[in-house]
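Field notebook, page 448. I keep forgetting to write these up properly, so this time I am using the form the group agreed on. The chain and the ligand, S-adenosylmethionine, are recorded exactly as supplied. Prediction of the bound pose follows.
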Amino acid sequence: MSRLTELISKYDVSIPRYTSYPTVPYWEDNLTTDTWIDQLRMACHLNQASLAFYVHVPFCESLCTFCGCNSSITKDHSKEAPYVDLVLREFEAYLKMVPELKNIPALELHLGGGTPTFLSSGELRRLTKGILGSNPAWSPECSIEIDPRRVKREQLETLRELGYERVSLGVQDFNPEVQRLINRIQPFEVTRDVTHWARELGFKSVNFDLIFGLPKQTAELMLDSARKTIELRPDRIALYSYAHVPWIKPAQRLFTEDDLPKGAEKRRLYELARVELLNSGYQEIGLDHFALPTDSLSQSASKGQLHRNFMGYTHRRTNILLGLGVSAISETPTAFHQNQKVLQLYERDIGEQKIPTLRGHLLTDEDRRAREQILNLITKMRTSISPTDRSSVATMLKPMIDDGLAQLTETEVLIEEQGRPFLRNACVAFDRRLQNKQPETRIFSQSV
Ligand SMILES: C[S@@+](CC[C@H](N)C(=O)[O-])C[C@H]1O[C@@H](n2cnc3c(N)ncnc32)[C@H](O)[C@@H]1O
Ligand code: SF4
């Protein structure tokens, strides 16, 4: 057995992806809308408060069977305008309750989904202007997720005109057989053409989303996807581990389990693509990202300024994330808040002029410390530890230290380069909530 195979069989367990701490299943649901508004207001008064907007557009025209996102499948485009109305009404309600929001700089606006380019040019314009028009001083970096199979050049032209600078293209895998199995036929030429449009129109950064661990993906196919990606040279690449959670996403049951690469075989796909990308000038960032040295993500990683929130890695830190739209998550230094996940309930709450709270979590001081440490690990591969934490962290990390994957000094934990595949396992050492209460049912995907 190779060393990596051995390590993978030891560390491939079901653990969180740490897009937040505490992770969503551990939120205490101790946040009413009123408390949430208080927390948001408090955050606006912080020294150097800064704001990022995330808008969730849930619609997609067809279902990709691997998908773990909150999406609503429809071809009915008459849903666009009423949905944009709802989001703008939600935003208006926030401005009324927390007028201080207008006093702080907005650094980012990200449209995600589902598929934000389900919206026509007109609705994309109305949505963007409806938010940014509230404060003429706001000029955030705008980014959007795009489905290359359906986006029109004219939509990209509108986005450029509106000031969008970054696009993220869903690619997943270039192989036709893998694409057939995930119900996502997307010829290479389609991705190529959209990438070229984005370049011609002057978008500053193009990202590709790729996934390893999809059904029938082999080493050869993964290498081919990596090479096709390199040929198109996106500035950033997210190479996600396929999260297999059929108990939450039943469409994933359509796969034959035997077709899914697992454990060491799955991780090998990542390693092969990784070597190919590194040899072609990309830098590895954090958990599962790559970027060209010219991209702001690489630059901020080398300056130790990388940040990560629910939207993924970002090149600078914002301390308030305001999520708008169905299922959107917001965060401040002291609280998390999630909107209703079911469209009808989101619609009902907005109709009743309420903030559409589904659930939330008020962070304790211990949560805040652990959140910072996990963020440090995921963005910088190191974190400081206090004398009080040291002995419990030392016990939890002992196997990783013995295996040469992590180092522990008096004041710091450091993840070695060979420990990078097991970064999420190291985060568990700081996750007191998981340590104190193991889930009774399966909720997280495997770590590899
Ligand atoms: C909202 S989609 C991207 C935009 C657009 N809907 C598209 O698919 O082209 C977000 C990304 O999440 C990733 N994703 C979705 N489900 C996943 C899963 N089960 N495991 C890993 N990554 C997943 C995919 O790479 C996908 O591109
Ligand atoms: S991967 Fe994108 S297009 Fe496919 S179902 Fe998920 S959100 Fe929709």
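OBSERVATIONS:
- Residues 80-97 form the longest helix (18 residues).
- The domain at 364-435 is CATH 1.10.10.920 (Arc Repressor Mutant, subunit A).
FOLLOW-UP: compare against the apo run.
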